[in-house]
Amino acid sequence: MKCRKCGGAAALELRRHNAAFCAPDFIEFFRNQVREAIRRHRMLTRDEPVLVAVSGGKDSLALWDVLAEDGYRTTGLYLDLGIFDYSVESRAKCEAFAAARGLPLVVRRVADEVGAPVPVIKQVTRRPPCSGCGLSKRYLMNRAALEEGIPVVATGHNLDDEAATLFGSVLHWQTESLARQSPALASSHPKLVRKVKPLYRLSERETAAYAFLRRIDYIVEECPFAVGATSIAHKEALNRLEDASPGAKHNFLFGFLDKARPAFERAEEVDLRECARCGQVTTGTLCAFCKLADQVKRAG
Amino acid sequence: MKVVLRNPRREVEVAGNRRVKDVLRELAILPETVLVIRGDDLVTADQVVADTDVIELRPVMSGGRA
Ligand code: SF4
Ligand SMILES: [Zn+2]
Ligand SMILES: [Zn+2]
To answer: What ipTM, to 2 d.p.?
Structure first.
């Protein structure tokens, strides 16, 4: 197979683009996709700082690499979930990445903020671990950004993540999630920072290839709680569709964003208030994060 | 040839001197779900791997994100 750009030996075939690239030309292709995402959704400017949420995995470290290389003012945010060896190792990967490039990294521990690490939250709430974990991550990312004076959080969600989320929302017709799903969410309240997903045009195989070719030392092992998560089952189903018809995931996600999302967006109008306890944004009196912290405290 | 699989890390022996595509098919792995790594390089599905080669099939799926 030959590189589409230079005709040299290809390192990676991208069936949905009907193309193959050598390593240097793939890296350029990847960065151009990120640039296109940023441009199209006006995600970032070089005049303002951006908080990059990093997990130690391939996606978020690839994202940090691209943004830092392209001259954005990045600070990393690592949330220590307290998930056994997985958290110890993934934190070390983020710290090594930041140190090698001289980039600032902020670390927050879920155990300090919620009162217990994710495995204990799972037991206390008797809910799937990803539910308390996801809630805590979303809350803490926003609060950390506000505290650091950074107006925007960038996450490493890729095309497969977004297609799987969309698939799950459509299966259950969760109209609120459909209204919210977007590569870029504007701030709808002074205490909510912007959220952007600059990798949404790139598949997880592409982010893995980028991380590998850039020699980024990322954690290949998964969070032990990821096994059996429904999002994984959705990804597997989509990968079988993709295998039979390359481009299926891309068309599913991009078709939604272009054609369907505006309709859901109009239907959802929510009333935002500030949490009586912590002051962060919520639709109720007490935010979901404070309720979770209360539940942990009662159990302790 | 030796094939290294991950999560958990394990090794299997399969016949070499054929295309990566055929090795993946034998192992029932969809090409979209892995990187094929030989040494410091990525290998495309149409390339032939030798009987003496060692390749790693690294899964690219991440997640469990809520
Ligand atoms: S798999 Fe679930 S528990 Fe593990 S880090 Fe992701 S959201 Fe949290
Ligand atoms: Zn090339
Ligand atoms: Zn609160």
So the answer is: 0.94
